[in-house]
Amino acid sequence: MSGNSSSKTVTRYWFKPHLVDECEEWSKEQPHARIVPLMRGESFRPKGNELILVLGGYAHLFCRSKIGDEKLTFLVGRNALANGSAALTGGNHLLRLLAPIPCSLAVFDVPLLEESFIRDNPALIIELSRSIAKTTNLFNLRAFNMCFHSSVSRLCSVINRITTQEQSPPDRQVSSITQNDIGALSGLHPVTVSNTLDVLRSAGIIGEISKSHIDVIDRNKLLEIEAYGYGYDKGRK
Hints:
The protein is α+β, with helices and mostly antiparallel strands.
């Protein structure tokens, strides 16, 4: 993915996971977990009520529908829980974690709903609750966008939520995102992603795009298009 930026002021935004560095208390519990290292391209499927914490690197979380097809749902980074809702509701059989780069997982098999566990571990329960709330909000927003927003709005929504202006340490970044990934997260075909990025680039809203960053020329316009579209999905200003 590449392109030329204009002479306007360009701000570089770095791709990042949806979830990263959110569960410090759970990360302290590593000695009580089973550690699973994953090489690039390897997958892990949680079983039963296992709760998964990504320790290092990042993972793609896929969810399988009732008809069997998988969808990329979230990018889960360091010290973030991947499957809080599924661990509590018995939905782990629908999930798969894929390592686009080498990463490690902490697998917890703990009685999350037992009164004694909740009473004895309030900090863990608070982090778990916050993680579930955030992932639920992200999922609901994605579902809303796919139902009611145009392709360009959905693409801008994904860009706005997985980028940060600050260049984070390498273990907090997404170093190898692809147009296929962006398409999966926005519910768009990769060709549509490519064409829509070309439209945004031609309109002077974005510049260069790589697997690790995107140069943004007009952030306010990017946010505006996410909310309203304004015909950019048809190639017009």
